[in-house]
Amino acid sequence: MATAPRVLASEWHIPATAKAYPGSARQVAEAYLRDEAASLGLGDVELTFRNDLALRSFTTIRLEQSYAGLPVLGGAAAVRVGADGKVRVVVLDVARNLSVALSPVLTEFDARTRARQWHGAPQSATANAKLAILPDEGTSGRLVWTVTVPSRFGARQVLVDAMDGRIVLDRSLDKHVLGRVYQISSVNTPTPVDTDLQDLVTSTPQLLNGWGGQLAVTNYVSGGSTNGNYIGSQTLVPNSGSDFLYDPPVDPLDKTDAFAQVGLYYHLTRMRNFFADTYSLDMSAPKWRVVAIANLLDDGAYVDNAFFSQPGSAGAPYADWNLVAVGQGTQFDFADDSDVFLHEFTHYINYNAHGFSQGPFETGPWGINPFPGGIDEGSADYYACTVNGDPLLGEASLAKLGAERDLTDTHKVCPDDVYGEGHMDGEIISSLSWTLRTDFGAATGDQLVWGALSLLTPGGALGDYGLALVQSAKDLKDQGDLTAADVTTVQDAVAQRQLDDCGHELELSPSKSRVTNIAGLEELSAYMGGDCDTFKGYGVSLHSFFHFFAQPAATDGGIRFKAELATMGGGDLSWGIYARRDQHVTFATSGQMPLPTVKDFDYKVTGFTGTTGELVIDANSTPAFDPTASYHIVIVHQNCPMVTATLHVEAAPSGVGGAGGSGGAGGEGGTAPVTPPRDDVVVDNGCGCRIGATDANGQSTGAGAWALLAALVPLGAVSRRRRRCAK
C-alpha cells in the first residue's frame, strides 16, 4: 500500500494490489476497509456511510467517523471505487485511540445558555445543540455540545465542554461574497428577460416554493445578529395572471424588491439543475432543504453582503433549513449579480455533499487551518464562473468595489501568495481549476473539479486539492476520458501553482528557503474596537499557518533556523520559534481560550522584537542534536503588523547554540503555558466578510485575512459597537 507524504494532514492510501470485490460501490468500499483495517490503522475507528458521489463510471463513497453513535468532529473518509469493483484510493482523516465518557455533566439547556451568553444572543434566539466528540491532540478526546447560535451574517458554531462548560471552540459557519442578479447580471445582461420558473410547487396563492418543497424563497421581515434569527416571509404572488413579471425597482434600496425574489428563485433553481444533471446528485433528502431570503437586513440595517449558512440562522418555520441570504446593500441590491447565487449555492453543495469545510477555518493538531475554507471559496468561484461561462467573477458587484476576481489570472502560487483568508487563497484554487477547464473544455474540467472535491477531508491542506486533481485525472484516464498526456498536463498545472508542494508542512534546505505570510494582531484589534497591546494582554497569540521542517546531513554538528520578517506597515513585533524533533509542533484547543495553543514541542526561542531571529540546535541543546532526526518548526507570535517571513536553514557547528535555541530570550523544551481567559471580555463578532487591501500595483496585501481572524478570535473586543463589512 503506497501512502502520500506525511506532510499532508489527510492520509492518502493507494492500494498496492487491485483486488475486485462484488456488490455495490458502497459494499466494495466497506469490504475493503474491513480487509485493510489493520494496515490503515482503523481497528478502533467507527466509520458510517454518509453519501456517494458519481464521477463518470467511478463512485466516491464518503464516510463519517462516529464514537458510540456520536459524531467525531472532523473525522471522515473517502473511498473511490471503479466500476470493476476495485478501490482506487482511500483518503482518511480520522481520530484514533478515542476513549471518552459519554454522560455529560452540563445539560443541553445550560450548553445553549452558555453559547448564547458567549455571543450576546438573546435567550429567545434559536440555539441547536447536539453532543459530539472532539478529538484533541495528545488526549483521548472530549465530549462537547455543538451549539449553533445566530450572529451577524449567519450562524456560529460554539463547542462547549460537556463536563465543565468551558468554551472550547467558536467558529463561523458562513461563507461570504458580494453580488447581484438578472439573467446573468445587470452588467452582462442588463435587459431583463421573461423565462420559465421551473419546478414550482403549485399552491393557491402561488408562492415561490420549489423542488418538491425543498426550496422556499422569502423576503426579509426581521431579526439579525442582535435580535435573533433572520425571519423571512412569503407574501409575493403573481402580478400578471399566473406569472411573476416584476420589473427591477426604481429605487435600488427598495427593501421589499419583488424582482430580487424572483431572480433568487430562478438562479438557485438553475444551479440546482446543473449539479443534478452534471453529477446525478440527489438533493431530495431533508438535509438539503434551503430557504432563501432576499433584501436581507440585519436588525433593520442595510447589509453589504450575501452568505450561505448551515441550519441555525433562519427563524421558524425554517430553523433547521440551510440558508442563502442576499443583502439589500447601502448602494444597491446584491441580488443583481447571479455570480453571487451560484457561488453561495456551491457552498451549500460543498457542505451537504462533500463536508470537507465547516467554515472559514478548521482547528486541529496543526493549529489554525484556513485551507479547507480556501478550497471552499475557490471552488465556489469556479462553479459560478463555469456555469455562467465567464472567468470574471462579480462584474456587477465586486467590480463596483474594484475587487472582481479574474480566474484567468494565474500569478498566485503556494506558499508565497497564501494569506489564510479564504477568498484570497481560493484564487489559487479557482484559477487552477479554470486553467484545466480551458485545457480540456468545460465538461471535463467540471468533472476534474468535482472528482477532486469528493476526495477532500476536513483536515486537509491546499496541496490535497492538487493531489485530488491528479488522482481524478488518472481515474478519468483509465476509463478513456483523458490520455496519459492529459494526466501530465494536469500534473504540470498543479506544479506550476506549486500545489504539489503545499501541505501543512514545507521542507527547508540550505538551497531552498521559503516565504510565508503571517497575520498579525494590529488590524484585528482595530477591527474589533481595541488596540494591539490590549489583545496581547488578553493572551491572544497567532502562528504561521504553514509549518516547516528540515533534515540535516549526516555530517552536520547542528542545525540553524533563521527567519527574516518584513512588516506590512508599522507596529511592534513579539515572536518566537518553536521546534520539535521528528514530528511537527502540535497545537490543541484544550486550553482555557477557544483558540489553538502550542502543546507539544522540544525547543523554543522567544522574545524576538526585531525583524530577524534564529534558533540553533546543537550538542548543548536539550535534547541534544541528532543528525539522523528531522527538525520541525513553526513561528508563534503576538506581532502587531502582518508580516512576510523568509525562512532559511543551514548547518551549525556543534557548541554554538544553547539549551534549545539562541537569539531570543532563551530556548527550552516542554509544554507551552496557557493564558487563562479574562472575565471582563466583551464579545463583538464584527463582520463576516472583508475585501483585501491592495498595493500600488493592485496586488493584494493580505489585509483581507482579518475577516478570518475577526471570526476566529471573538474575545478581546473593548466596545459593543457593531461594524459593517469593509467595502
The tally of structural domains comes to 5
Give me the number of helical elements. Answer: 13
How much is the radius of gyration in Å? 25 Å
CATH topology of the largest domain, which one?
Elastase, domain 1
Mean pLDDT: 85
In the CATH classification, which architecture of the largest domain applies? Roll
Indicate the proportion of strand residues.
Answer: 25-35%
Number of strands: 35
State the shape. globular
Largest sheet report: 8 strands, mixed
At the first level of CATH, what is the class of the largest domain? Answer: Alpha Beta
Kindly state the percentage of residues in helix: 10-25%
**Helix-strand makeup class:** alpha+beta
Distance between the termini: 51 Å
Low-pLDDT segments: 1-7, 176-181, 657-727
Write a brief caption for the model.
By secondary structure, this protein is of the alpha+beta class.
